[in-house]
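Predict the 3D structure for this chain.
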Amino acid sequence: MNKSLSFILACVAVWAVANTATAQTAEPTSKPNYQLFLMGDEMALCSSMAWTHCSDTDWLDGTQMRTDRYINLTDNYVTPLLDDDLWPVHRRKARDDVKMAIEILYERMRSDVVPERSFQEEFTRRATRHLYDSLSEREWNLIVDHLEMPAPQGKTDQARIKLTKVAAKRDIVQAFLQQADLVRGGDDMPRIAIAAVGARDPLTAAQPFMSAFESLGAQVRWLPIDAAVNTAQRTGKCADLDTLREQELGTWKRARVFPELHKQQLAFCQDKLEGPRIVDWADAVFMVGNDANLVRKAMLDPMSQPTDLMTSIYLKMRANKLVVGATSDAMNAMTARSMVASGSSAEALRAGVIAGEAPPFGCEKDNTCPRNMNSESATYHPLGGVGLFASASLDGQFSELGRHGRLLRVAATTNTPLAVGVDTRTALAINVLTGAFEVLGERGVFFGLGAQQTDNAVAATFHYLVAGASGRFSDNNVVDMKLASGDDVVLEEPTTQFLNNRGMVDSLRLLCQQRNSFNLLQKDFRLMVVGDEATKRVKAGGECQVTDARIGITWQPDTW
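Done. Predicted structure below.
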């Protein structure tokens, strides 16, 4: 029998049941019920710049709000983009092709200024499509950032929570605001600080969330910390902030595009006490973004020690006077355990996980991948994230991107007893003082316990709970679980693709149909799930919740 398959079967046969001893429940706190919201979703809301997320667009008004980024195709914008300093020698041919492509697009559109959407649509058509496909993410961002015109003065990206198509997102935002309101505890509306610490372009990313909470009646302030500001403060180079954005964030010309926001961020940079003052003012901090590494760089120093700002957030949250929320992969950085940074499950199973910085997306296109890595390489930070959640390693956008393999690989490699993955349209609300938690939104949360591995396989005990379920973290375990019940049905067509899609949780429904096991195959990979008489199964929301089942994933390219 193949060694990897034997390993999985052994883990299936000899599976350590999680410790079910119940610790004494801490005395309830007066406010709030949950101090930490882990949101597996990017939480893209209906806004004037993201109107595709809106159920109605009649409210859009280009005279009053920002509705698009605008691209300038004149020489004043194009010539700086083509500077040799921005393009390594081995990519000068690509640079010359970009110059030619812009000339072609100018002839097609017959306009000096075009919306970014139109620019991208034209770039991906006909003669220029091959060039678009050959560009790395860094190169595409370089192009768009250099060609972007200043944002219209007085116009912002305005959000409409009630018009956001996905009801679960609305519910999660409301639940977060309710906990902040418990902190405030008076007649005043809660105070929310928005920090786009995990976003490549924080000046753009913060605006819709500020508008969203304002529309719900909250008092809102921008907390303008990011990786570039942190570096500038530590090195005394606030005057070089726009240049540091290029190095730390991969954004260009932000001072030109957002002159007023740049001035605000510059003033914040020059006053190191302003960050803690904003935290002292706030009832909640909402962290936005899709890059866990950027969160670390914004909130920690190069020795992985918390900044004064991060320390103030931690202490106030532990005093039960602050609620913290984090979206998408920025959520990963909330952990004090090993932090999942990047990569696919397939690559994690093929090559293992690597302790180090995430490789640039699409790095193979411009030869910027670190040695022995590619754009799919699975990486983690062994020293963890910002330390707000001590119980487990974390991963967002979980089932939808089939991230079971990469999360369990990190847990097994680092001997982390517990790993938690949060689906999109879902949030895990946690009381960090008592360990109590509740699943909110629409989908579910995966809890992997005791992950083990061989060279090309990984296995673990797991639970999968959906919205409405609750429980408690205790001693590297999950206890006191109460499964949800409900009739809301997930409408997406089921799939068996488990490396990059929802195949694993879709197939869990078989366990709720009196099956005790199932196998899925995708390319050279196999997923096995097994339950027995100790496995609890409850249908809810069109999904199957399970506790104390087992999962194994293996890569066997020469077997089938």
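DSSP finds 19 helices and 22 strands in the chain.
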